[in-house]
């Protein structure tokens, strides 16, 4: 059955912020061939295109006067890796990311357990090189397959070709809006390589009564516990998770910051220091802030990095709040915050 092109579709249920924007055109595809069929339609060729997976990293500030293509390609399978301790896990781009983490654990594979409970789909994961608790997607990435929008050709991209950076890839830069990811292959470990060095993982494991070397499943459980304690469930409060990237500053800038704010946290990264955006925002007094006449949007009470829609907010209101936060952090600390969320 060919994919169907729909007109004037509400996107409220397709974005975790719960913003009620409309797409002029909308279609879902469940295979690379269905995607090619859609891309051959004159209406689609001429329109601005937006690919949606879980809609967990977008903020709509207006109706979308183009075509929204929803990626629903499924499929999970494990194949032999280059050596006996490595396995290749292939996932369709429309699979839920957390579902892939659970599947990997069920197969006795480790490498992505620190990325548990990150919302969204597999196809979006390499585009912004998702990361959490000391691990990034690029650490487990082997290659991906994507359809070129202009030709419909399927192409494979290696780790190097993806140009991964902090919440960045070549698909957010030189190749932006040129390819649609159909599948991702991860390189995972049969012999466990546990990473508990970041954040509160070790403390949480101890609170769970785990004092010996934890299993990947236990690390996953700890990460899930931490995330649930800090981050609101989009099914209950509209949000897109971390709204801002953690800024990276030079060592000199960080030393200057520490002189003025001795308690300022920072994590060494190549070329400088990463400063938690949530801490910067909280120091500016935004944590728990509610805006609007009825307080219908604002900053989450447990995590200043998360902007929330308590109900009825517009994307323009949330964007204005983000701009106010950016300006206040710039004024107080001389550090520029950048959204992690894609704003339309």
TrEMBL record:
Coiled coil: none annotated. It is found in: Cytoplasm. Pathway: Cell wall biogenesis; peptidoglycan biosynthesis. The active site is at residues 167, 242, 340. It is an enzyme of class 1 (oxidoreductase). Keywords: Cell cycle, Cell division, Cell shape, Cell wall biogenesis/degradation, Cytoplasm, FAD, Flavoprotein, NADP, Oxidoreductase, Peptidoglycan synthesis. The keyword Cell membrane does not apply. Its EC number is 1.3.1.98. Belongs to the MurB family. This is UDP-N-acetylenolpyruvoylglucosamine reductase.
